[in-house]
Design a protein that fits this description.
By secondary structure, this protein is of the alpha+beta class. The chain contains 3 helices and 7 strands, in the order H-E-E-E-E-E-E-E-H-H. The strands form 2 sheets. Strands 1-7-4-5 form a 4-stranded antiparallel beta sheet, with no helix packed on it. A 3-stranded antiparallel beta sheet has the order 2-3-6, with no helix packed on it. The two termini are about 20 Å apart. The relative contact order is 0.19.
């Protein structure tokens, strides 16, 4: 009976967690690690001397990250606060394609407002680990869908 209740709770959280997530508050003074950034060209156009492109900037971190990239030799930064991707507009003096847009760096930052960690029981630790794994799995699925790749299910990803 206890396993059924636990399974139902985790199942409900996996479904409703993305629906009730609030915008993250980020501390961009505290780096917590690196992430993987990518740029997708959604559309491009223009003519000499002015070209433009709509791009999607994506980070492997679910929230609170910065993706640094270059358009030719011009540095750009996209700050991702409450999601792991955002659409942007780029402008340049040459036609814009994936060949002249390169990701330099992706940095993950701390979230603000997280309660200080207190001594926790083994059950609390298990619940925290599962929630963190579900967030990572959500970012993983989005990245795999973007790249048109297969993905593994939540139960395989978060044992």
């Amino acid at each position: 009976m206890n396993n059924k209740v636990t399974s139902m709770i985790f199942g409900a959280l996996a479904v409703f967690l993305p629906l009730c997530a609030n915008a993250a508050e980020c501390d961009f003074q505290k780096e917590v690690g690196t992430c993987s950034g990518s740029i997708q060209i959604l559309s491009s156009g223009g003519s000499k001397p002015s070209y433009s492109a709509e791009i999607r900037v994506t980070s492997s971190a679910p929230t609170c990250s910065k993706v640094e990239y270059y358009l030719d030799n011009t540095p750009n930064v996209t700050v991702l606060k409450s999601s792991n991707s955002e659409d942007e507009s780029l402008f340049g003096t040459k036609p814009i394609s994936k060949n002249n847009v390169t990701v330099r760096k992706c940095t993950a930052y701390a979230s603000v407002g997280d309660a200080p960690k207190q001594q926790s029981s083994a059950a609390d630790k298990y619940f925290e680990d599962q929630m963190a794994c579900m967030r990572r799995h959500s970012a993983y699925v989005k990245q795999q869908q973007k790249n048109h790749q297969g993905w593994i299910g939540l139960m395989e990803y978060c044992p």
